[in-house]
Design goal:
Layout: H1 29-44, H2 53-64, H3 69-72, H4 77-91, H5 95-107, E1 114-121, H6 128-135, E2 141-145, H7 149-159, E3 175-188, E4 194-197, E5 213-216, E6 225-232, E7 235-244, E8 248-254, H8 261-276, E9 292-293, E10 298-299, E11 319-320, E12 323-330, H9 338-348, E13 357-367, E14 371-383, E15 406-412, E16 432-439
Parallel strand pairs: 1-2
Antiparallel strand pairs: 1-3, 3-14, 4-5, 5-11, 6-7, 7-8, 9-10, 12-13, 13-14, 15-16
Helix pairs in contact: 1-8, 2-4, 2-5, 4-9
Length: 445
Protein backbone atom coordinates (compact mmCIF):
# COMPACT_ATOMS: atom_id res chain seq x y z
CA UNK A 1 0.00 0.00 0.00
CA UNK A 2 1.34 3.38 -0.96
CA UNK A 3 0.51 5.78 1.83
CA UNK A 4 2.14 8.56 3.74
CA UNK A 5 2.22 6.37 6.82
CA UNK A 6 3.67 3.18 8.23
CA UNK A 7 2.26 -0.35 8.13
CA UNK A 8 2.36 -1.57 11.68
CA UNK A 9 -0.31 -4.08 12.59
CA UNK A 10 -3.54 -3.40 14.44
CA UNK A 11 -5.72 -5.59 16.61
CA UNK A 12 -9.31 -6.40 15.88
CA UNK A 13 -11.80 -4.14 17.66
CA UNK A 14 -13.17 -5.48 20.95
CA UNK A 15 -16.20 -4.49 22.95
CA UNK A 16 -17.91 -2.70 20.06
CA UNK A 17 -20.96 -3.50 18.00
CA UNK A 18 -20.37 -6.35 15.54
CA UNK A 19 -21.24 -5.20 12.04
CA UNK A 20 -19.88 -8.35 10.43
CA UNK A 21 -23.26 -9.91 9.71
CA UNK A 22 -24.86 -9.41 6.33
CA UNK A 23 -27.25 -6.47 6.29
CA UNK A 24 -30.95 -6.86 5.58
CA UNK A 25 -32.65 -5.47 2.51
CA UNK A 26 -33.65 -2.35 4.45
CA UNK A 27 -30.04 -1.34 4.73
CA UNK A 28 -28.51 1.05 7.21
CA UNK A 29 -25.39 2.15 5.37
CA UNK A 30 -23.47 3.38 8.43
CA UNK A 31 -22.68 -0.08 9.87
CA UNK A 32 -21.69 -1.36 6.44
CA UNK A 33 -19.20 1.48 6.11
CA UNK A 34 -17.94 0.94 9.66
CA UNK A 35 -17.28 -2.69 8.75
CA UNK A 36 -15.52 -1.76 5.52
CA UNK A 37 -13.55 0.99 7.26
CA UNK A 38 -11.99 -1.57 9.60
CA UNK A 39 -10.44 -3.32 6.62
CA UNK A 40 -9.32 -0.20 4.80
CA UNK A 41 -7.82 1.59 7.80
CA UNK A 42 -6.11 -1.58 9.01
CA UNK A 43 -4.18 -1.67 5.75
CA UNK A 44 -3.46 2.06 5.90
CA UNK A 45 -1.57 1.52 9.14
CA UNK A 46 -1.40 3.31 12.44
CA UNK A 47 0.44 6.47 11.40
CA UNK A 48 -1.12 9.72 10.15
CA UNK A 49 -3.43 9.03 7.20
CA UNK A 50 -6.81 9.78 5.72
CA UNK A 51 -9.07 7.52 3.65
CA UNK A 52 -12.58 7.38 2.27
CA UNK A 53 -14.25 4.02 2.94
CA UNK A 54 -17.40 5.38 1.30
CA UNK A 55 -15.53 6.23 -1.91
CA UNK A 56 -14.16 2.69 -2.18
CA UNK A 57 -17.47 1.11 -1.17
CA UNK A 58 -19.37 3.06 -3.82
CA UNK A 59 -17.02 1.90 -6.56
CA UNK A 60 -17.52 -1.72 -5.49
CA UNK A 61 -21.27 -1.12 -5.45
CA UNK A 62 -21.16 0.20 -9.02
CA UNK A 63 -19.29 -2.97 -10.02
CA UNK A 64 -21.83 -5.06 -8.12
CA UNK A 65 -24.54 -4.09 -10.60
CA UNK A 66 -22.61 -6.15 -13.18
CA UNK A 67 -23.66 -9.34 -11.36
CA UNK A 68 -27.22 -9.09 -12.67
CA UNK A 69 -29.39 -11.99 -13.86
CA UNK A 70 -28.09 -11.78 -17.45
CA UNK A 71 -24.46 -12.13 -16.33
CA UNK A 72 -25.31 -14.83 -13.79
CA UNK A 73 -26.92 -16.94 -16.55
CA UNK A 74 -24.27 -16.25 -19.20
CA UNK A 75 -21.29 -18.30 -20.39
CA UNK A 76 -19.23 -17.34 -17.33
CA UNK A 77 -22.03 -17.85 -14.79
CA UNK A 78 -19.90 -19.79 -12.31
CA UNK A 79 -17.21 -17.06 -12.24
CA UNK A 80 -19.86 -14.35 -11.88
CA UNK A 81 -21.54 -16.08 -8.94
CA UNK A 82 -18.22 -16.71 -7.16
CA UNK A 83 -17.10 -13.10 -7.64
CA UNK A 84 -20.50 -11.82 -6.51
CA UNK A 85 -20.23 -13.78 -3.25
CA UNK A 86 -16.82 -12.22 -2.54
CA UNK A 87 -18.17 -8.78 -3.37
CA UNK A 88 -21.04 -9.29 -0.96
CA UNK A 89 -18.57 -10.18 1.77
CA UNK A 90 -16.71 -6.91 1.17
CA UNK A 91 -19.86 -4.79 0.81
CA UNK A 92 -21.68 -6.36 3.75
CA UNK A 93 -24.91 -6.69 1.79
CA UNK A 94 -26.25 -8.21 -1.41
CA UNK A 95 -24.93 -7.02 -4.77
CA UNK A 96 -28.44 -5.91 -5.74
CA UNK A 97 -28.92 -3.85 -2.59
CA UNK A 98 -25.44 -2.30 -2.85
CA UNK A 99 -26.02 -1.35 -6.48
CA UNK A 100 -29.37 0.22 -5.60
CA UNK A 101 -27.82 2.23 -2.75
CA UNK A 102 -25.04 3.53 -5.01
CA UNK A 103 -27.52 4.48 -7.73
CA UNK A 104 -29.66 6.44 -5.27
CA UNK A 105 -26.69 8.23 -3.72
CA UNK A 106 -25.08 9.19 -7.02
CA UNK A 107 -28.40 10.35 -8.51
CA UNK A 108 -29.10 12.70 -5.60
CA UNK A 109 -25.84 13.72 -3.88
CA UNK A 110 -25.89 15.40 -0.49
CA UNK A 111 -25.99 19.21 -0.77
CA UNK A 112 -22.59 19.50 0.89
CA UNK A 113 -20.86 16.58 -0.86
CA UNK A 114 -20.08 16.51 -4.57
CA UNK A 115 -20.31 12.90 -5.74
CA UNK A 116 -19.69 11.32 -9.10
CA UNK A 117 -18.87 8.04 -10.81
CA UNK A 118 -17.80 6.91 -14.25
CA UNK A 119 -17.22 3.72 -16.26
CA UNK A 120 -15.05 4.03 -19.36
CA UNK A 121 -14.04 1.18 -21.64
CA UNK A 122 -12.29 0.24 -24.86
CA UNK A 123 -14.49 -1.41 -27.54
CA UNK A 124 -12.48 -4.63 -27.13
CA UNK A 125 -14.41 -5.45 -23.93
CA UNK A 126 -17.79 -4.19 -25.16
CA UNK A 127 -19.28 -7.66 -25.42
CA UNK A 128 -23.01 -8.18 -25.24
CA UNK A 129 -22.87 -8.65 -21.48
CA UNK A 130 -20.64 -5.65 -20.86
CA UNK A 131 -22.70 -3.41 -23.12
CA UNK A 132 -25.94 -4.47 -21.43
CA UNK A 133 -24.41 -3.70 -18.03
CA UNK A 134 -23.20 -0.25 -19.06
CA UNK A 135 -26.51 0.63 -20.68
CA UNK A 136 -28.33 -0.39 -17.51
CA UNK A 137 -26.23 1.82 -15.22
CA UNK A 138 -27.81 4.80 -13.51
CA UNK A 139 -27.88 7.93 -15.63
CA UNK A 140 -25.85 9.57 -12.86
CA UNK A 141 -22.85 7.36 -13.75
CA UNK A 142 -20.84 8.67 -16.67
CA UNK A 143 -19.95 6.21 -19.43
CA UNK A 144 -18.04 6.36 -22.68
CA UNK A 145 -14.76 5.63 -24.42
CA UNK A 146 -11.47 5.57 -22.52
CA UNK A 147 -10.20 9.13 -22.00
CA UNK A 148 -6.52 9.97 -22.30
CA UNK A 149 -4.46 10.92 -19.26
CA UNK A 150 -4.96 14.72 -19.54
CA UNK A 151 -8.73 14.22 -19.75
CA UNK A 152 -8.67 11.92 -16.72
CA UNK A 153 -6.64 14.45 -14.75
CA UNK A 154 -9.15 17.14 -15.66
CA UNK A 155 -12.01 14.87 -14.55
CA UNK A 156 -10.35 14.26 -11.18
CA UNK A 157 -9.53 17.92 -10.65
CA UNK A 158 -12.98 19.24 -11.58
CA UNK A 159 -14.96 16.66 -9.62
CA UNK A 160 -12.76 16.95 -6.51
CA UNK A 161 -13.21 20.73 -6.30
CA UNK A 162 -9.58 21.13 -7.36
CA UNK A 163 -8.18 19.18 -4.42
CA UNK A 164 -6.92 16.15 -6.40
CA UNK A 165 -5.10 17.38 -9.51
CA UNK A 166 -4.25 13.98 -11.03
CA UNK A 167 -6.21 10.81 -11.68
CA UNK A 168 -4.69 8.20 -9.36
CA UNK A 169 -4.38 5.39 -11.93
CA UNK A 170 -2.33 5.94 -15.11
CA UNK A 171 -3.94 4.93 -18.39
CA UNK A 172 -1.70 2.84 -20.68
CA UNK A 173 -1.95 1.12 -24.05
CA UNK A 174 -3.03 -2.05 -22.23
CA UNK A 175 -5.86 -0.40 -20.29
CA UNK A 176 -9.25 -1.60 -21.49
CA UNK A 177 -11.52 -0.30 -18.72
CA UNK A 178 -11.47 2.36 -16.03
CA UNK A 179 -13.95 2.84 -13.20
CA UNK A 180 -13.91 5.71 -10.75
CA UNK A 181 -15.84 7.42 -7.98
CA UNK A 182 -15.20 10.83 -6.50
CA UNK A 183 -16.37 12.52 -3.30
CA UNK A 184 -15.54 16.09 -2.31
CA UNK A 185 -16.65 18.54 0.33
CA UNK A 186 -15.60 22.01 1.44
CA UNK A 187 -17.53 23.50 4.36
CA UNK A 188 -17.25 26.22 6.98
CA UNK A 189 -18.10 25.68 10.61
CA UNK A 190 -21.26 27.27 11.92
CA UNK A 191 -19.03 28.95 14.52
CA UNK A 192 -15.24 29.11 13.92
CA UNK A 193 -12.78 27.86 16.49
CA UNK A 194 -10.69 30.27 18.50
CA UNK A 195 -6.89 30.17 18.33
CA UNK A 196 -5.08 29.41 21.59
CA UNK A 197 -1.52 28.45 22.59
CA UNK A 198 -0.78 24.81 21.80
CA UNK A 199 0.27 24.29 25.41
CA UNK A 200 -3.45 23.99 26.18
CA UNK A 201 -3.34 20.56 24.52
CA UNK A 202 -2.00 19.43 27.91
CA UNK A 203 1.33 18.79 29.62
CA UNK A 204 1.47 15.19 28.42
CA UNK A 205 0.72 16.03 24.78
CA UNK A 206 3.66 15.38 22.43
CA UNK A 207 2.35 18.21 20.23
CA UNK A 208 2.14 20.90 22.90
CA UNK A 209 5.81 21.85 22.62
CA UNK A 210 6.03 21.42 18.86
CA UNK A 211 3.01 23.46 17.77
CA UNK A 212 2.50 27.16 18.32
CA UNK A 213 -1.30 27.27 18.32
CA UNK A 214 -4.30 24.98 18.57
CA UNK A 215 -8.05 25.27 18.02
CA UNK A 216 -10.42 25.90 20.91
CA UNK A 217 -14.18 25.91 21.06
CA UNK A 218 -15.73 29.23 22.06
CA UNK A 219 -16.01 29.70 25.84
CA UNK A 220 -19.71 28.83 25.53
CA UNK A 221 -19.73 26.38 22.59
CA UNK A 222 -23.46 26.46 21.81
CA UNK A 223 -24.36 26.22 18.15
CA UNK A 224 -21.87 24.40 15.95
CA UNK A 225 -19.74 22.73 18.66
CA UNK A 226 -20.65 19.80 20.88
CA UNK A 227 -17.87 18.68 23.25
CA UNK A 228 -18.59 15.85 25.70
CA UNK A 229 -17.17 12.92 27.63
CA UNK A 230 -18.75 9.65 26.53
CA UNK A 231 -18.77 6.27 28.26
CA UNK A 232 -17.79 3.55 25.79
CA UNK A 233 -16.45 -0.01 25.64
CA UNK A 234 -13.00 1.62 25.43
CA UNK A 235 -13.59 3.55 28.66
CA UNK A 236 -14.46 7.22 28.96
CA UNK A 237 -13.45 9.09 25.81
CA UNK A 238 -13.27 12.75 24.80
CA UNK A 239 -15.62 13.63 21.94
CA UNK A 240 -16.10 16.79 19.91
CA UNK A 241 -18.62 17.26 17.11
CA UNK A 242 -18.17 20.27 14.80
CA UNK A 243 -21.11 21.07 12.57
CA UNK A 244 -21.34 22.90 9.26
CA UNK A 245 -24.59 24.51 8.19
CA UNK A 246 -26.41 22.28 5.72
CA UNK A 247 -25.83 18.93 7.36
CA UNK A 248 -22.20 17.88 7.74
CA UNK A 249 -20.74 17.01 11.12
CA UNK A 250 -17.10 16.12 11.81
CA UNK A 251 -16.70 14.04 14.96
CA UNK A 252 -13.36 13.74 16.80
CA UNK A 253 -12.91 10.94 19.37
CA UNK A 254 -9.90 10.64 21.72
CA UNK A 255 -9.41 7.49 23.81
CA UNK A 256 -6.51 6.51 26.06
CA UNK A 257 -3.13 6.42 24.36
CA UNK A 258 -2.83 2.63 24.60
CA UNK A 259 -6.05 2.05 22.61
CA UNK A 260 -5.14 0.68 19.15
CA UNK A 261 -5.97 2.78 16.12
CA UNK A 262 -8.41 0.19 14.78
CA UNK A 263 -10.50 0.28 17.95
CA UNK A 264 -10.51 4.08 18.14
CA UNK A 265 -11.58 4.35 14.51
CA UNK A 266 -14.30 1.77 15.02
CA UNK A 267 -15.68 3.65 18.01
CA UNK A 268 -15.68 6.89 16.03
CA UNK A 269 -17.63 5.13 13.26
CA UNK A 270 -20.16 4.09 15.89
CA UNK A 271 -20.51 7.50 17.54
CA UNK A 272 -20.41 9.77 14.48
CA UNK A 273 -23.72 8.69 12.90
CA UNK A 274 -25.51 9.09 16.23
CA UNK A 275 -24.06 12.56 16.82
CA UNK A 276 -24.74 13.64 13.26
CA UNK A 277 -28.38 12.63 13.67
CA UNK A 278 -28.63 14.17 17.15
CA UNK A 279 -29.33 10.76 18.64
CA UNK A 280 -28.47 10.17 22.31
CA UNK A 281 -25.09 8.84 23.35
CA UNK A 282 -23.89 7.84 26.81
CA UNK A 283 -22.55 11.25 27.81
CA UNK A 284 -21.02 11.38 31.27
CA UNK A 285 -21.90 13.95 33.90
CA UNK A 286 -18.85 15.87 35.02
CA UNK A 287 -20.01 15.34 38.61
CA UNK A 288 -19.49 11.59 38.18
CA UNK A 289 -15.81 11.98 37.25
CA UNK A 290 -12.79 12.64 39.48
CA UNK A 291 -11.28 16.11 39.63
CA UNK A 292 -7.77 16.72 38.36
CA UNK A 293 -5.56 16.66 35.25
CA UNK A 294 -5.35 13.73 32.86
CA UNK A 295 -4.27 13.11 29.29
CA UNK A 296 -7.84 13.46 27.97
CA UNK A 297 -9.15 16.35 30.06
CA UNK A 298 -8.62 18.58 33.06
CA UNK A 299 -11.53 18.76 35.48
CA UNK A 300 -11.82 21.52 38.07
CA UNK A 301 -14.53 22.72 40.42
CA UNK A 302 -15.39 26.19 41.77
CA UNK A 303 -18.26 28.02 43.38
CA UNK A 304 -20.11 30.39 41.01
CA UNK A 305 -23.28 32.46 41.00
CA UNK A 306 -26.01 31.02 38.79
CA UNK A 307 -29.38 32.46 37.80
CA UNK A 308 -30.71 29.00 36.88
CA UNK A 309 -32.62 26.50 39.02
CA UNK A 310 -29.92 23.82 38.92
CA UNK A 311 -27.67 23.57 41.94
CA UNK A 312 -24.90 22.13 39.74
CA UNK A 313 -23.67 23.62 36.47
CA UNK A 314 -21.59 21.82 33.84
CA UNK A 315 -19.46 23.54 31.23
CA UNK A 316 -17.33 21.72 28.64
CA UNK A 317 -14.91 23.15 26.08
CA UNK A 318 -12.41 21.43 23.79
CA UNK A 319 -8.95 22.08 22.36
CA UNK A 320 -7.88 20.29 19.19
CA UNK A 321 -4.99 20.63 16.75
CA UNK A 322 -5.61 21.64 13.17
CA UNK A 323 -4.57 18.94 10.71
CA UNK A 324 -4.24 17.99 7.08
CA UNK A 325 -3.39 14.75 5.33
CA UNK A 326 -2.78 13.46 1.85
CA UNK A 327 -2.56 9.74 1.07
CA UNK A 328 -2.68 7.24 -1.75
CA UNK A 329 -3.88 3.74 -0.91
CA UNK A 330 -3.51 0.57 -2.96
CA UNK A 331 -6.78 -1.37 -2.76
CA UNK A 332 -5.58 -4.76 -3.95
CA UNK A 333 -5.95 -6.62 -0.62
CA UNK A 334 -8.42 -9.50 -1.12
CA UNK A 335 -10.79 -8.48 1.68
CA UNK A 336 -11.32 -5.01 0.17
CA UNK A 337 -13.28 -6.56 -2.72
CA UNK A 338 -11.54 -5.10 -5.76
CA UNK A 339 -9.98 -8.40 -6.81
CA UNK A 340 -13.48 -9.89 -6.86
CA UNK A 341 -14.78 -6.88 -8.79
CA UNK A 342 -12.03 -7.32 -11.39
CA UNK A 343 -12.91 -11.02 -11.77
CA UNK A 344 -16.56 -10.12 -12.22
CA UNK A 345 -15.75 -7.56 -14.91
CA UNK A 346 -13.37 -10.01 -16.60
CA UNK A 347 -16.18 -12.57 -16.88
CA UNK A 348 -18.54 -9.89 -18.16
CA UNK A 349 -16.02 -8.98 -20.87
CA UNK A 350 -15.77 -12.62 -21.94
CA UNK A 351 -12.17 -13.10 -20.84
CA UNK A 352 -11.17 -16.74 -20.29
CA UNK A 353 -9.04 -15.70 -17.31
CA UNK A 354 -9.17 -12.87 -14.74
CA UNK A 355 -7.79 -9.64 -16.18
CA UNK A 356 -5.02 -7.86 -14.26
CA UNK A 357 -6.20 -4.80 -12.37
CA UNK A 358 -5.01 -1.87 -10.33
CA UNK A 359 -7.18 -0.17 -7.71
CA UNK A 360 -6.05 3.01 -5.96
CA UNK A 361 -7.58 5.73 -3.82
CA UNK A 362 -6.14 9.25 -3.68
CA UNK A 363 -7.49 11.24 -0.75
CA UNK A 364 -6.80 14.60 0.89
CA UNK A 365 -8.36 16.34 3.89
CA UNK A 366 -7.87 19.45 6.02
CA UNK A 367 -9.39 20.49 9.36
CA UNK A 368 -8.77 24.02 10.60
CA UNK A 369 -10.20 27.04 12.38
CA UNK A 370 -12.70 27.94 9.68
CA UNK A 371 -13.88 24.59 8.38
CA UNK A 372 -13.23 21.21 6.85
CA UNK A 373 -12.45 20.04 3.32
CA UNK A 374 -11.78 16.63 1.87
CA UNK A 375 -11.77 14.83 -1.45
CA UNK A 376 -11.23 11.24 -2.58
CA UNK A 377 -10.91 9.74 -6.04
CA UNK A 378 -11.13 5.94 -6.05
CA UNK A 379 -10.20 4.30 -9.34
CA UNK A 380 -9.81 0.81 -10.78
CA UNK A 381 -8.13 0.01 -14.10
CA UNK A 382 -8.45 -3.29 -15.94
CA UNK A 383 -5.74 -4.27 -18.45
CA UNK A 384 -5.50 -6.67 -21.39
CA UNK A 385 -2.62 -9.03 -20.76
CA UNK A 386 -4.88 -11.93 -19.81
CA UNK A 387 -7.12 -11.70 -22.86
CA UNK A 388 -7.20 -14.62 -25.27
CA UNK A 389 -4.20 -15.01 -27.59
CA UNK A 390 -4.58 -13.38 -31.01
CA UNK A 391 -6.02 -15.62 -33.73
CA UNK A 392 -6.59 -15.31 -37.48
CA UNK A 393 -10.08 -14.26 -38.50
CA UNK A 394 -11.92 -12.57 -41.38
CA UNK A 395 -13.07 -8.99 -41.19
CA UNK A 396 -14.98 -6.83 -43.63
CA UNK A 397 -15.04 -3.06 -43.36
CA UNK A 398 -17.33 -0.56 -45.05
CA UNK A 399 -16.62 3.15 -45.28
CA UNK A 400 -19.71 5.24 -45.95
CA UNK A 401 -18.99 8.44 -47.88
CA UNK A 402 -21.27 11.44 -47.74
CA UNK A 403 -19.45 13.13 -50.62
CA UNK A 404 -22.38 14.82 -52.37
CA UNK A 405 -25.61 16.57 -51.28
CA UNK A 406 -27.53 14.55 -48.64
CA UNK A 407 -30.43 14.93 -46.25
CA UNK A 408 -30.53 15.11 -42.43
CA UNK A 409 -33.65 14.71 -40.26
CA UNK A 410 -33.83 14.93 -36.43
CA UNK A 411 -36.73 13.15 -34.69
CA UNK A 412 -37.76 13.32 -31.03
CA UNK A 413 -39.27 10.45 -29.06
CA UNK A 414 -40.69 10.00 -25.56
CA UNK A 415 -40.22 7.10 -23.17
CA UNK A 416 -43.48 5.50 -22.01
CA UNK A 417 -44.17 5.53 -18.26
CA UNK A 418 -43.55 2.21 -16.54
CA UNK A 419 -46.42 -0.19 -17.13
CA UNK A 420 -48.21 1.92 -19.77
CA UNK A 421 -48.94 0.05 -23.02
CA UNK A 422 -51.76 2.15 -24.48
CA UNK A 423 -50.85 5.07 -26.78
CA UNK A 424 -52.51 7.79 -24.67
CA UNK A 425 -49.23 8.57 -22.86
CA UNK A 426 -47.64 9.92 -26.05
CA UNK A 427 -46.94 13.63 -26.32
CA UNK A 428 -46.65 15.75 -29.48
CA UNK A 429 -42.90 15.22 -29.30
CA UNK A 430 -43.10 11.47 -29.85
CA UNK A 431 -41.91 10.48 -33.33
CA UNK A 432 -41.92 14.08 -34.55
CA UNK A 433 -39.25 15.39 -36.95
CA UNK A 434 -37.91 18.52 -35.30
CA UNK A 435 -35.07 19.53 -37.64
CA UNK A 436 -34.31 18.59 -41.22
CA UNK A 437 -31.67 19.72 -43.70
CA UNK A 438 -30.27 19.18 -47.11
CA UNK A 439 -26.53 19.44 -47.03
CA UNK A 440 -24.83 21.08 -50.03
CA UNK A 441 -22.25 23.43 -48.51
CA UNK A 442 -20.29 21.73 -45.69
CA UNK A 443 -17.65 23.74 -43.81
CA UNK A 444 -14.42 22.98 -42.00
CA UNK A 445 -14.97 21.60 -38.49
Amino acid sequence: MRTGSGRTGVRSPVGLRDHGAMASTTTDLAPLLARYARRLHALAGTEHHVASPLGAWLLLAVCASAAGPAAADGPHAAEVRAAARELEDALGTSVDEAAAIAARMLAAPHPLVAAGAAVWNDPVVATGGWQAWVEGLSAAIGTGALPDQPALDTWARQHSLGMIPQFPVPVTDETVALLATVLATRVSWDVPFELVPATRLGPTSPWAGRLGQALATPPVPGRGHRPMIVASPLGDVAVHAARADGGLTVVSVAADQDVPAAEGLDLAHTLAPALGLDEPVDARSLFDLPLGDGPLWSLTEEEVTSTGWDSRVERITAVLPAWSASDQHDLDAPDLGFAAAARLLSALAGSPAPLPFEAVQAVVASYDREGFEAAAVTAMAVATSALASPRRTTRRTAELRFGHPYAVVAVTTDTPPRGRVDPTWRTPWHGTPTFSAWITAPTDP
